[in-house]
Amino acid sequence: MAVQKLSQGEIEAALAELDGWELKDGKFHRELKFRDFVQAWGFMTQVAMEAEKANHHPEWFNVWNRVVIDLTTHECGGLSRRDVLLAQKINALAGG
Questions:
Q1: Selected catalytic residue, list 19, 22, 36, 57
Q2: Which of 13, 24, 39, 87 is the S-S candidate for 29 at Cβ 3.0 to 4.6 Å?
Q3: One of 12, 22, 52, 59 is an active-site residue; which one?
Q4: What does pLDDT average to in each consecutive run of 10 residues of the chain (96 residues)?
């Protein structure tokens, strides 16, 4: 089954419900800060487990207590429902 690309309206509706996320360079983007590196790494480990279960992996970057996440679906060349679902899981793990 082909992955469907979200329309602009669907992207805007998703962003309205995804606290902390914005659209940047055509991707869902969020930056998080943690107490220290261990807390940031622990968060990334939790996200990695959820991403693996969903077979949908983030583009991300980590330096010390900061984690930067970009979500996109390469299969459809844009954003899909997979990105929305993973963003929701990330928010749950981040506590908001």
A1: 57
A2: 24
A3: 52
A4: 88 96 97 97 97 94 97 94 97 87
